[in-house]
Amino acid sequence: VPLAYNPLYYVLSGLFVKVLGLNLLTLRLVAILGMLGSGIIIYRVVREKTSSQWWGVIAVGLFAAAYRVMDMYLDTAHADSWFFFFFLLGTYILDRNRSRGWNLIGVITLVAAFWFKQHGALFVVGGVLFLTWRNGLKQSLIYWIVITLLGPVLYVLVGPLLFGSYFHYFTWVVPRAWSEFNLAALRRYLGFMLRYYPVLAVAGTILSVWAVRRGRSQLTMWHVQFGFALLTGLMGTLDAGSSDNVYIPMGTWFIIMGVWGLHQFTGRLAANQRYIATLAALALTFGLFAYDVSNAVVSFSARANYDDLMTTLNNLNG
C-alpha cells in the first residue's frame, strides 16, 4: 500500500511477517519494539547526562505518559516509533564520539531514520554538521560522502528500481503539495508547545542556549539536534491535515532536554527549595499529559471490525 513515507518500516515489518504471519498484531509488534528501544535510549541519555537513575526513570515516565499527546502513534502499525528510535540511536552514538568508525555507524543510523520517514533528513544534516564543527571538514568529509550516497543518490537513482516507478510520486510529489505556511500553522505549532510542554520546552531551551553561550566545551550533539527536532515539528505543522504524531520527535527532545535542564536548575537550589520546585514542575507536566485511559483500550468489537476490513480489502480488484 503506497503511502507518503519512505518504505523502510514496511521492509522491516516484512521480516517479522515471514515468521509471525501477515496481520495487524505483527505490524503493531514491530512498532512496539521501536517504542521500547526508544524508551531505553531516553533512559540511558538522561541517566548519563544527570548522573541519576531517578531522573532517567522520570524521563521514561514522561515519554510513556505522553502517549495520548503523541496521538497514540507509538504502538500503531506506522513508521513513527522506528523513525525516532533510529534518530535517537544515531544521535546517541555520535554524541559519545568513541572513534571515526563508531561515528560512521552513527551517521548511517541517522540515514536509516530518513528511510523510515523523510523528516529524518533534518537529523542527518544536524548530526554531520556537528561532526564537522567538532572534528573539522577534512576528517568529516567521509561522513558527507556517505550521507550523499545513502541519502539523495540512493533515493533518486535506486529508489524507483527497488520500490517501483511511483516511488518518487508518493514520497516526494504528494507530500510536497501538502505544505502551506500561514498564521494558522504557526498558532498550532506554538499552541501545541504551550499546551503540553511549557515547563520542559522552557527548561530545554534555556539549557541549550546556556550551552551555546559556553562554547565548544559544553555543546553536545543533543543540544544541536534539539534545534532540528523543533524544525521537524514546524515542517509537520505545514501540513494542515496532519495528526499530532508530527510532533513526536520534538516532544521527545523536550522530554530529554527538559528533564536534563530541570536537573541542572533545581540542583542549584537549597534542598527544601529543590524538592518543591522539582515536584511542582513534574506535577504540572504529568498533569498536562493526563488523558482518559479508556480511550486507549481496544474495544470488544475491534476483532469483528478488523475482519470486516480484511474482507473488504481482499475483495478489491488490485
**Gyration radius from CA atoms, angstroms:** 21 Å
This entry's quaternary arrangement is: single chain
Q: Determine the number of helices (DSSP H or I, runs of at least 4 residues).
A: 14
Could you say which structural class the secondary elements and strand pairing correspond to? mainly alpha
What portion of residues is helical?
over 70%
Please mark out the parts with pLDDT under 50 across 5 or more consecutive residues, or reply none.
Answer: none
**What does the average pLDDT come to?**
92
Characterise the protein shown here:
With 318 residues, this protein is mainly alpha-helical. It is built from 14 helices and no strands. The protein has helices at 8-20, 24-50, 53-65, 80-96, 100-116, 120-135, 137-163, 167-176, 183-196, 198-214, 221-237, 248-266, 271-289, 302-314. The protein is globular and about 70 Å long. The mean pLDDT is 92.
